[in-house]
Amino acid sequence: MSMVEFTRKVPDLIIMRHSKSAYPLGVPDHDRPLSERGSRDVQAARQWFTQQAFPIDQAWVSSALRAQQTWAGIRPGIRETALPTFDESTVPELYEASVAQLLSLLTTATARTLLVIAHNPGLEQLINSVVGRDVHGWLSHIRAKFPTGAVCVIRHEDWATLAEGQAELVTYAVTRAS
């Protein structure tokens, strides 16, 4: 996407699933860290975000450790192109959020370009629910699996009216280290 595309007035929602997590014995799900692969993939995601140069003005991140570590890894790449009014928040409600909970949260958004880093199955279900236009055919891949480190950009008319079939899927990428 070019900066010219961001001169429009409709908001973008950038949805990212956290990078690959580890499964250490005895660690509660909320506190699971990134795996070694996840840490490498975060660096690839950081480069991808830097190249995309999204003018993000707000980031919402799940309180789960793996989401926080994903954010910490990509944040420097995002800060390079973020708007001067950029704001970031840990949003505990994103952890294990259902589609209904995610939609409810999103109706409160005020950002023009909002990045959300959270979890499946909620994110995958949200994308499948709200996307009504997919000119590139990416939705079939997302329906099969929205993997760790995956990123979607969804464009819609208004945060308050984000609902089933009302958005356009404009970008899909799976950020992985080589």
Describe the structure.
31% of the residues lie in helices and 21% in strands. With 178 residues, it is α/β, with parallel strands linked by helices. The protein has a single domain (30-174), classed as Phosphoglycerate mutase-like (Rossmann fold, 3-Layer(aba) Sandwich), CATH 3.40.50. It has a seven-stranded mixed sheet. Strand 2, helix 2 and strand 3 (87-90) form a beta-alpha-beta unit. Helix 1 (36-52) packs parallel to helix 2 and helix 3 (99-106) packs across helix 4 (122-130). It is globular, with a radius of gyration of 15 Å. It starts with 11 loop residues before the first strand and ends with a strand. Residues 1-8 have low confidence and may be disordered.
Secondary structure category:
alpha/beta
The amount of helix comes to 25-40%
Integer-rounded radius of gyration = 15 Å
- Assign the CATH topology: Rossmann fold
How much of the polypeptide forms β-strand, as a percent range?
Answer: 15-25%
Low-confidence stretches: 1-8
Count the beta strands. Answer: 7
Just name the CATH architecture.
3-Layer(aba) Sandwich
